[in-house]
Design a protein that fits this description.
Layout lengths: L6 H9 L11 E4 L4 E7 L6 H10 L2 H4 L2 E7 L3 H10 L4 E5 H9 L4 E9 L2 E6 L14 E4 L4 H12 L9 E4 L2 H9 L5 E5 L2 H7 L3 E7 L3 E7 H6 L1 H20 L1 H8 L10 H8 L19 H16 L16 H13 L12
Helix pairs in contact: 1-7, 2-10, 2-11, 5-13, 8-12, 10-11, 10-14
């Protein structure tokens, strides 16, 4: 099925989540009872955004003794700023964004894995290129300073190409990229979901290499992390319950996702396809949901840190292990296995 969303509108959608955006005026929604948790999030990253909507629209947070203040922001830099300033207690950050907070020594601790997403190298239909090896002599466009850029570099090197010699990466903003792809003015580019799925769905491009391991992490302001560990634990439990509820009620939750800007213009089939690359979206049991960052995910963050320094995207090499805490999330996973959770017991509090 071909999407009817215009290139201009998609460019606006993509630009709304560019890494270079400043702190946006937040959209704040509040529940009424329990310990206050100020959560910063953005409404495009699949699965992560669906979790936020479940926390906003069901009694899951209240059942865990929490009162959520949901602060919708534009992108990772805005969330980082909110966490550093104390305006937010916890926020959703891509793995490289989380590493960036470590490199600048921000008072932030990464405490959990929340969702997985896909990044990819794609070629336009007009290019006629169907293999990544055939990018030799080509320019590959995309936004530098994001996880997808590292994934793209890794992919072309694995294919036997040397960046800067056999092919060239070109830095462009998301809106400019969307327009160039739609007009078929370029041969190749890199991006992440739901934008990968959009370009596939629209018939503009095909994937020649993809990576389904990038992580959306949950990072906490250190004051919240240190002073309210029990509240954080209950929040991580609520987050896991929200994820499992979403996986069991996909049509309902996808509708919630598409009820807020800028996601209103993401076609449903694009949203569903992009979400499906996270194994948790197809969870069969609550024990399939894991809050704890895995050793492989932590190792990937260390790789991203090294790459970021080498690419001059980070000011220094952080000691990643010092900025990650897995103890609370691990305890949540153990309790989840022992206690279980029935998504049918959840009450919807706001349609």
């Amino acid at each position: 099925m071909t999407s009817t969303i215009s290139r201009r509108r998609f460019g606006q959608l993509a630009a709304g989540f560019a890494a270079s955006l400043p702190l946006a005026t937040p959209s704040i929604l509040r529940a009424q009872e329990g310990d206050l948790v100020k959560m910063c999030w953005f409404n495009t990253t699949t699965v992560s955004a669906q979790i936020a909507h479940v926390l906003m629209r069901t009694d899951i947070a209240a059942r865990n003794g929490l009162r959520m203040e949901m602060i919708q922001l534009a992108a990772s830099p805005a969330i980082t700023e909110a966490l550093v300033s104390g305006a937010g207690d916890i926020g959703t950050l891509s793995d490289f964004a989380a590493v960036t907070t470590m490199a600048i020594g921000a008072p932030v601790t990464t405490v959990s894995s929340q969702a997985l997403f896909r990044s990819a190298v794609l070629t336009t239909k007009k290019s006629g290129i169907t293999k990544i090896e055939d990018l030799k002599g080509k320019q590959v466009y995309g936004t530098f300073g994001i996880t997808a850029f590292q994934n793209a570099q890794e992919a072309v090197i694995k294919a036997g190409l040397v960046p800067g010699k056999d092919m060239t990466f070109v830095n462009v903003g998301p809106a400019e990229l969307a327009d160039a792809v739609g007009a078929q003015r370029i041969d190749a580019f890199f991006t992440y979901d739901p934008f990968v799925s959009f370009f596939e769905n629209a018939g503009h491009a095909q994937v020649v290499s993809q990576n389904v391991t990038p992580v959306i992490a949950l990072s906490a302001n250190n004051r919240f992390f240190q002073q309210k560990p029990e509240v954080l634990k209950r929040f991580l439990r609520a987050n896991s319950e929200a994820l499992f509820f979403a996986s069991q009620n996909q049509e309902l939750v996808n509708g919630w996702f598409r009820s807020l800007e800028p996601a209103k213009n993401i076609p449903l089939e694009v949203l569903q396809k992009a979400s499906s690359y996270d194994p948790a979206w197809n969870a069969k049991a609550f024990t399939d949901i894991k809050a704890t960052l895995s050793p492989a995910q932590i190792a990937k963050m260390e790789t991203l840190a090294k790459w970021g320094v080498e690419a001059k995207l980070l000011p220094r090499m952080p000691d990643v292990s010092k900025f990650i805490n897995t103890a609370i999330a691990s305890a949540v996973d153990k309790e989840a296995a022992a206690q279980g959770f029935d998504p049918k017991s959840v009450k919807i509090t706001r349609a």
